[in-house]
Amino acid sequence: MKSSLEHLPEQKQRELARVVEIIHEEFEDALKGGEAEFKKKGRIWKIILFGSYARGTWVEEPHTTKAYHSDYDILIIVNTRKLIDPKYWYTAKDRLMHAIKTPVNPIVHSRREVGDALHKGNYFFSDIRKQGIILYELDDAELPVPKDPSPEAALESAKLYRENRLSDARAFLKGARFYLTEKEYRQAAFSLHQALEQAYSGLLLVLTNYSPASHNLKQLRGLAEQNAEGLSDLWPHDRHRYISWFNTLNEAYVKARYSHHYSITEEALVWLIEHAEKVIENIDQACNKRISELAKNIGNI
Prior knowledge:
Blueprint: H1 10-31, H2 37-40, E1 44-50, H3 52-55, E2 72-78, H4 90-99, E3 104-110, H5 111-119, H6 123-131, E4 133-137, H7 151-181, H8 185-208, H9 217-227, H10 240-250, H11 252-258, H12 266-297
Helix pairs in contact: 1-4, 7-8, 7-12, 8-9, 8-11, 8-12
């Protein structure tokens, strides 16, 4: 794998060096004092930059109408699956959000998970192996060489992902509309959150055969927008009001169910539902396009 960041401006190189420092500092702090053997032996095996900054296709348009910023996509590989638990990474993610100017989108997987995915020919991890840039590694052991899945298996998986995830997305969207008419705003927000989570996850699974085990709409949206042209244009990036509404929706998975202090307005929900409908429709089109391409590859069309 590559290790050079020479294609990035010096300021970005410095930021990424600081990202690595923060990840190590907070990981060590999270395991400090632990008596469990897996904590004592817990290690970060590799930290890999992938996505637009690794490919050299990042976008940074702070002064344009879209005001869009690409994220640093970071894969953190740990030596045991027990250490992928979110509780070991809350503080690191919070600190990265506040200490690094460029948004950071870290995902955490175990060495075995990544190896198994590559042995199965998972597109997502295969692309990271091909295009990713090593920011840190404990040793120089290479990631396994990915296998190519059969075209028939890839097509069948994509069809199932689209059918199941997009069907669930539309069902949750229908629920959001119903709860809105009943003025049950918290329930509407939770249903809408689930509609977008299913849609974004479904798209990632169809296109890359991978979606992180996450309820964070920002993370899922960021990964989805990297893989499907035009998706990033469906949410305004330049109006604080709309950004705030999306952030409120992102909190709905937990707070809309468990916190009586969670609040969202009817106006926000109407606007969010309208835009979610467009997102789901565009995702459906992107999924259909990918399935058609896979079918053509094996002569089904």
